[in-house]
Design goal:
The chain has about 700 residues and is an alpha+beta fold. The chain contains 22 helices and 22 strands. The N and C termini lie far apart (about 135 Å).
Length: about 700
């Protein structure tokens, strides 16, 4: 009996030795495999302390509402405590139900997936844990090779050694790709359902949890039925794992899923404005930080004014296009449609409140409010008149409106004409500006000097090159809409020039302030000169080329502008609180058509916008500086030249206290029909009969 047991004992010992040797060899082999595939991988991983993934940079309006996003990967990082438990459970059920039990690699899940796929005859389940998927996204390529799977398992184990399960979940849910450029659960929730992850329901959570396995194939935007099939699988797994009750399971299956994609911010609210911000911040900080660094960019834009501006431009251009189409050759129509731009500033701070750079940003990204340089025509005249006022002239200074001839070259002459090819003889500067008399503007430039006018333009913020000749009087030099609005804002702001303010503050992803910008003001005109010019521009509205604006029922100052052959239409106008400028024209400088002047093209757009923007606004007048005196004038009995283009012949005229008021033409004289030269205005005579100086109020 003893002899029979001895061979059996020897056999068992050999088996045990064999198992031990095989185990040892297996262990050595595993160590060798780990070393071979993992020696160049990081041994100690810390993914959380320096976790700064590529995240969205966001642009905000003046109220803090998002109006634009810039990114390489559309990701919004959220802490784990903001993610509902049912969302986490949906991902665990779909991808890794034993997540809290394994150490990075789950052999049981690998076997289960193998047999499940074998039974179905297709690959439906995977054995990778969430940790393996996480390290795959961080460190590895998506290639399907044995080498990658081994390296993936090694990294997953090392990650589990150095991170809690909660940290791994936080990283995974913010890192995983959901399709359509969305990285992380928050970005996906916003893009698919138009709301943050904390607000999605069970059915929606299950749909999102089904996407990472195959973001393209399971995308509800591309194949809604495939996405819902995957969602039902996730719900079933949640029920099988007892994450949800049968009642919740059935309710979720019956719950309708409605896709509500978040609006594409960059093309919705203020596309030309947002694009300007992108270029500015990209050049200032670099485009990689802009597209990956999660910057928060706060701007001056007022969304309500912006929407009113876009509506006014779109409706106004539609009307102009329809009108022009009726009288334009079909061949000309194929060359492109009429375009326009509108820019709104707070004249007291320089804040850009609204900006429309064209009819449709999707069709043309060209920013006509900032980039386009166009001739302003008569809209340039207030700059000339402000210089004339500074040189000692007043609203009641009289100057000749008559034919002028300038010899440009042998046999070539320039003869500036008024809009209606009429001349009115002696007129006041007040009347000349109201009716935009060209010969008067030319005479003023000739009197005070081209260089003086250019200096005035520079002082008012115009930086574009300006022609050094008398054609400057008619707005022959091309400038941007922003430059013109900024110059007029000086008059509205009592003589102070404000730097245009687009960006008020920039912070990094952690809230550290990178820059903060306050209004930057500089006095360039006296308050009195600015006020007198504003009064002259109010008269443009009351009795001149801007009469259509009077229906606004508020105190408005402004000026129209039209260039030769009706190539450009302008209107720039302001109230005590707001200034807006409009330009209309073709990009290729074609004429708009006969009689398509600024008063007919740009002014209606301005009026539509200001009507909407001014709802609920008061009727305050422009504040009167201390140094302003008043002259009560009966323009007819006082001997002033007629026609005076005034809505009322009895009026109050402001003047700078201590200055001299130019006399009227006390008697009518017949002007010669030949060319006229600029006559000197006597500034030393007293106020004319019929006038009374009134103390400033």
């Amino acid at each position: 009996m003893v002899q029979l047991k001895r061979p059996r004992l020897v056999f068992y010992k050999l088996v045990l030795w064999g198992i031990g040797v095989l185990s040892l060899l297996g262990f050595i082999g595993m160590v060798g495999v780990v070393y071979y595939y993992g020696h160049d991988l990081p041994s100690r991983l810390d993914l959380t302390s320096n976790y700064q993934p590529s995240v969205v940079s966001t642009v905000y309006d003046v109220e803090g509402r998002p109006i634009g996003e810039f990114y390489h990967q559309r990701r919004v990082v959220v802490p784990l405590d903001r993610i509902p438990s049912q969302v986490i459970q949906a991902f665990l059920a779909a991808e890794d139900a034993r997540f809290f039990k394994h150490k990075g690699v789950d052999g049981f899940a690998i076997l289960r997936a193998f047999f499940a796929n074998l039974k179905r005859g297709e690959v439906r389940e995977g054995g990778s844990t969430l940790t393996q998927q996480l390290v795959r996204g961080f460190f590895l390529t998506p290639e399907r090779t044995l080498k990658r799977k081994i390296r993936e398992a090694i990294l997953a184990y090392r990650v589990e050694r150095n991170h809690t399960k909660e940290e791994i979940l936080y990283l995974y849910l913010n890192q995983v790709y959901f399709g359509h450029g969305n990285y992380g659960i928050e970005a996906a929730s916003r893009d698919y359902f138009g709301k943050g992850v904390e607000n999605i329901n069970l059915a929606e959570a299950a749909l999102l949890a089904g996407l990472p396995r195959s973001p393209s194939r399971s995308s509800p935007y591309r194949d809604f039925f495939s996405a819902m099939e995957r969602q039902r699988y996730v719900l079933k797994r949640m029920y099988e794992e007892r994450f949800i009750t049968e009642v919740a399971y059935q309710d979720a299956l019956q719950s309708p899923v409605r896709l509500t994609p978040a609006p594409t911010l960059n093309s919705q609210t203020a596309p030309h404005f947002v694009e300007y911000v992108r270029q500015t911040i990209g050049e200032r900080y670099g485009f990689d930080p802009l597209l990956q660094g999660g910057l928060h960019i706060y701007t001056s834009l007022d969304t309500s004014l912006q929407m009113a501006a876009q509506k006014a431009v779109r409706e106004g251009l539609d009307e102009i296009r329809l009108r022009i189409k009726k009288k334009t050759d079909p061949i000309e129509q194929g060359k492109g449609d009429v375009e326009g731009a509108l820019l709104v500033l707070d004249p007291h701070t320089g804040s850009v409140l609204a900006l429309v750079g064209g009819y449709d940003f999707a069709l043309s990204q060209y920013n006509r409010a900032l980039q386009a340089k166009r001739q302003p025509g008569s809209a340039f005249k207030p700059i000339i008149y402000s210089a004339a006022l500074e040189s000692g002239l007043s609203e009641l200074s009289v100057i000749q409106d008559g034919p002028l001839t300038f010899r440009m070259a042998p046999g070539k002459y320039w003869r500036p004409q008024n809009y209606e090819n009429r001349f009115f003889g002696p007129v006041t500067l007040r009347s000349a500006l109201a009716h935009s008399l060209n010969s008067v503007a030319v005479r003023l430039v000739d009197r005070i000097g081209v260089e003086r006018v250019i200096r005035q333009a520079r002082k008012l913020g115009i930086e574009s090159p300006l022609d050094k000749n008398l054609s400057l009087a008619l707005g022959s030099s091309s400038v941007s809409l922003l430059e013109m609005v900024r110059a007029y804002a000086v008059f509205a702001n009592g003589g102070e020039l404000a730097e245009p303010l687009f960006i008020t503050k920039v912070t990094d992803r952690d809230g550290k302030v990178l820059e903060e910008n306050d209004p930057n003001l500089k006095r360039v005109l006296s308050p009195e000169i600015a006020y007198v010019l504003t009064d002259m521009l109010k008269n443009v509205i009351q009795s001149g080329t801007g009469r259509a604006v009077a229906k606004l029922g508020r105190h408005v100052a402004g000026k129209t502008g039209t260039t030769s052959e009706y190539r450009d239409g302008w209107f720039i106008g302001y109230t005590p609180e707001l200034i807006a400028g409009v330009w209309v024209g073709y990009d290729d400088h074609r004429p708009l058509g006969d009689r398509e002047a600024g008063a007919r093209t740009a002014l209606p757009i301005w009026l539509t916008f200001m009507t909407e923007a001014g709802q609920g606004a008061g009727t305050e007048d422009f504040p009167v500086p201390e140094g302003i005196g008043w002259l009560e004038v009966n323009l007819k009995d006082g001997g002033y030249p007629l026609p005076v283009f005034e809505s009322s012949l009895l009026t109050r005229i402001p003047f700078v206290s201590g200055s001299h008021i130019a006399p009227p033409a006390l008697r009518k004289t017949k002007e010669p029909e030949s060319d006229l030269t600029l006559g000197k205005v006597d500034l030393d005579q007293r106020s004319p009969p019929g006038s009374a100086v009134v103390p400033g109020s």
